[in-house]
Design brief:
Layout lengths: L7 H5 L6 E3 L5 E7 L4 H6 L2 H9 L2 E7 L5 H14 L4 H10 L6 H10 L4 H8 L2 H17 L6 E4 L2 E4 L4 H13 L1
Parallel strand pairs: 2-3
Antiparallel strand pairs: 1-3, 2-4, 4-5
Helix pairs in contact: 4-5, 4-6, 4-7
Length: 177
């Protein structure tokens, strides 16, 4: 199993990964998640809120669709939405949805945030998005991430749903190093 330190470049220098917050932030919070994971939904937006309050934090999203075909469909849709500049809005809408995410509901949510559905469906099938999801899965496996959510801050990996206080402490600890 690899350490976060050993995989630092692979984790942080992913030009395809969606970003929120300060793109030049001094600390990056990496969030591995699945749109169908109830624990992911319970902490959805916490890293983004922390980044807003802090001002010097960058949040990087790593889709890790491990809960079935609907998870893969939602992850592909979100990454395709990024090509329309709608990733964050769509990501939050998917995370806030309390309906069981079927393919139909995922598309309905996309329509609700003003995404061009024809372009979305075409982009979802792109080889780049497929490779990105495969790379996220491989990275997670190498790091020993066996479920979602999981957070990386600095050299520390925190599996599971963490609270804002823990996240703030992890960011402060990363700044000390």
């Amino acid at each position: 199993m690899a350490t976060v330190k050993e995989k630092r470049d692979e984790i942080l220098k992913d030009p395809a990964a969606p970003i929120f917050g300060n793109p030049d932030g001094d600390v990056t919070v990496v969030e591995f998640f699945d749109y169908r994971c109830p624990y992911c939904k319970s902490v959805a937006g916490k890293a983004m809120e922390t980044a807003k309050k802090d001002g010097k934090v960058r949040v990087m999203f790593k889709e890790l669709p491990i809960l079935g075909p609907e998870s893969v469909f939602a992850a592909r849709a979100a990454l395709a939405a990024q090509r329309q500049g709608k990733y964050i809005e769509y990501h939050l809408a998917l995370m806030r949805s309390r309906e069981r995410l079927t393919d139909e509901i995922t598309i309905r949510i996309a329509q609700g945030v003003g995404i061009d559905l024809e372009k979305l469906k075409k982009d979802m099938g792109s080889p780049e998005i497929k490779r990105q999801l495969e790379a996220n899965l491989e990275l997670a496996q190498e790091l020993g991430i066996r479920g979602t959510p999981a957070f990386i801050v600095g050299d520390r990996l925190a599996p599971g749903a963490i609270d804002e206080e823990t996240l703030v402490k992890m960011i402060a600890d990363a700044r000390k190093k």
